Amino acid sequence: MTVSEMFCEREKTFLSEFAFKTADTKGRxxxxxxxxxxxxxxxxxxxxxxxxxxxxxxxxxxxFIFPQDEHFRTRMTHTLEVTQIARIIARALxxxxxxxxxxxxxxDLGHTPFGHSGERAMQLFYSEDFAHYKQSIxxxxxxxxxxxxxxxxxxxxxxxxxxxxDSEASTLEGKIIKLADRIAYINHDIDDAxxxxxxxxxxxxxxxxxTLGKGHSxxxxxxxxxxxxxxxxxxxxxxxxxxxxxxxxxxxxxxQSVYRNKIAKSEEDKAIEMLRxxxxxxxxxxxxxxxxxxKNTMSEPVERCVCDYISSMTDRYxxxxxxxxxxxxxxxxxx
Length: 335
Prior knowledge:
The protein has 16 helices and no strands. The chain is mainly α. Helix 5 (97-106) crosses helix 8.
């Protein structure tokens, strides 16, 4: 028996009856030989971690656009915090931790530069149907690995696609990702907003502090515990009603006080305008895009391919590219 087979056998006896078992996966679009040492979801995790799209997350905005202070979260650190929270919940509920880990690591691979500002830019200039979670699926199916895609399992892609909005993943593990994502960003965005002096802890409604806690780790622990206690040995994953209500009120506070705050978003209009100019430039000059994106214009609309290219950019890459195209440099005499 191989190590991967041993892991799958262990799942049958250790995991909850409601857990998704690796052996039951719907598989991949392209069949591949089994790995002797890793389960299918462990392989997905490794494919995501070694992808270029994953590495680029370290230089993509979470909330604050291109901050000078390196202690603010990026899309990468957000992803790691979501993964950590998801694994804690999955382990406590005896659900499939490997499936949770892979989906959490991949859930934001399609995020644009400048966070949700970049997402809005693509909705304005490409298509109102653009969404980062749909783009994440496009990344793993078509754009990564030099256009071959990562060939992930159906369950991991399903969790990625359904991690936000009103849609629901097909597995309990996928449902954990949606909760872990909210728990992570609600708390770390408040933490960053306090660090950035956008708000102070005294601005947070007192009743929410009383219910959820004052400190960052205290609030996360309260929310995670509320998911575990409510969902233990149940065919669903959700948070205790009182804590969920307070969590959503805290989220509303975050939208009003941080996400729509003029100081926090002072550079947003500039970022959107810059992406508009880049979008229009490459629609007119698609041959100037990297080969992967230009090649795709032979089979898909050029606007779709330009959207892929811009969505792949990090904050600093987009700024440097804009500077190269539109800001004059210092002239030097040639020899």
